[in-house]
Design brief:
The protein is of the alpha+beta class.
């Protein structure tokens, strides 16, 4: 009898059958839905919060709305503009220089035996004063020899003159024909001329010896001052050896550059006899020095500088070292600031530089309704303190804003600030240490102002 084959499936236990035939659990779907919700809800929540914040912040506060309705006026200080005549002052700078400076040389050869106390660096001397003296022994000997030669030649000439006269007397006595002229050799005329020439030559040699003796004493050619001495006592020098550098002290010169835009305002002297132009000089190195020196522009160089295209005017300063006046001296090489009076500009408005913005922009305040208006200007001329204009669109009495404005819309309302008094400002700062610093004002102590400025 054949046994039936074992079926693997039949050997499975009854406990394994439920697992192999199990169905999905109903809780698994709810877990999956919860996971999806967790992924979607946070982004939606974030978007909702962001939208709520945007809507909330986009709503303008009531205070801001009310502020737009009443804009705050722009606070500024002003100056009144009135057309008037303006005297121009051209400010320029230059260095003091001597008008006559030379190198003192020796005209003869010799040994230095004496140097004047006034021939030291910076010392003053007078015209004709002996500054350096050489050994004169050789020169005195040369003078003695020249004098002896003159005496010999003079004696020889007298002898030849006597012999010539005697020869003429003899000719007149012995000649049968009185109308016949004697031969020059008979009258010894050639010998007489040679003797006369010898006398002239000896006198010339004597004059040269005397001049060399005088040149052994080197004298000052003018009143002046020593810039540098280069010779020493006991030094042997040759002809044309430099002894030092000296310059005249009667007056000095200042070379002043004049720009092309300032030239029309000045009537500079061009020819001999033209009237000079007055100049006031001040010390540039020491601004605390209140000394002023009067000067005059006496000529110009006549050509423009190749690099700067400026014309250089030469100003003359009398008694620069204060020898006669007793003023503080001007040093050679000292820089000075020169103020030159120019022509008067007619019917111009002077704008303080504090009120000019971006070179050619200003803010005008209408005095009637106190509104701000921007204007572009074209300067006629400008100096250190003011810019001069002629503008028919700016009537007399207009107000120029001088306070630095960071925001200045056209037509804005303006509140005019009074000029600040430094003393009252200091008292206010002492009472309230937390008070802020006020803006700068030109006040009444500023530069030149036009009209009521």
């Amino acid at each position: 009898m054949r046994l039936p084959e074992n079926d693997p499936s039949s050997n499975q236990s009854p406990e394994a059958e439920p697992h192999s035939q199990a169905k999905p659990s109903p809780n698994k779907g709810s877990v999956r839905g919860l996971a999806i919700a967790i992924r979607i809800v946070p982004p939606l929540l974030i978007l909702a919060i962001g939208w709520f914040g945007y809507v909330t912040l986009s709503i303008e506060p009531e205070e801001t709305k009310r502020a737009k309705g009443k804009p705050r006026p722009i606070k500024t200080q002003v100056v009144e503009l009135i057309a008037q005549n303006y005297e121009t002052k051209i400010i320029t700078q230059g260095n003091v220089r001597p008008h006559d400076q030379i190198t003192l040389n020796s005209e003869v050869t010799g040994k230095v035996v004496r140097i004047s106390a006034n021939f030291e660096d910076g010392a003053f001397f007078n015209k004709g004063e002996i500054l350096v003296e050489l050994d004169t022994a050789d020169f005195e000997a040369a003078v003695a020899n020249a004098e002896a030669q003159v005496a010999r030649n003079t004696s020889g000439y007298a002898l030849e003159k006597a012999e010539s006269d005697q020869a003429r007397t003899n000719w007149e006595k012995l000649s049968p024909d009185l109308n016949e002229d004697p031969d020059p050799l008979v009258l010894r005329l050639p010998q007489l001329k040679q003797a006369e020439a010898n006398v002239k030559s000896a006198n010339a040699q004597l004059g040269r010896a005397l001049r060399d003796l005088e040149r052994a004493r080197i004298r000052a050619p003018f009143d002046g001052r020593v810039r540098q001495r280069v010779v020493g006592l006991g030094q042997a020098i040759r002809t044309n050896s430099p002894l030092g550098t000296i310059f005249a002290s009667d007056y000095a010169e200042v070379r002043l550059p004049i720009s092309g835009e300032d030239l029309p305002l000045l009537d500079l002297p061009e020819r001999v006899g033209d009237p000079p132009v007055e100049v006031v000089l001040r010390d540039t190195l020491n601004l605390a020095n209140e000394t002023v020196w009067k000067a005059q522009i006496i000529r110009t160089e006549g050509t423009l500088d190749a690099r700067s295209l400026e014309l250089f005017a030469i100003a003359k300063v009398d008694d620069p070292f204060g020898i006669k006046s007793g003023k503080s001296p001007l040093r050679i090489g000292q820089p000075v600031t020169a103020s030159v009076s120019g022509k008067i500009l007619q019917n111009v408005m002077a704008l303080p530089r504090l009120g000019v913005k971006r070179i050619n922009q200003i803010y005008i305040v209408d005095p009637k309704d106190l509104t701000l208006h921007n204007r572009t200007i074209e300067a006629v001329w400008a100096d250190e303190h003011n810019v001069l204009i002629r503008d028919p669109q700016i009537p007399d009495g207009s107000l120029l804003a001088t306070t630095k404005l960071s925001y200045a819309p056209e037509g804005a309302t303006v509140e005019i600030l009074p000029d600040l008094d430094p003393e009252s400002l200091a008292k206010t700062s002492q009472r309230d240490p937390k008070a802020g610093k006020p803006e700068k004002s030109i006040g009444k102590g500023g530069g030149k102002k036009s009209g009521g400025i």
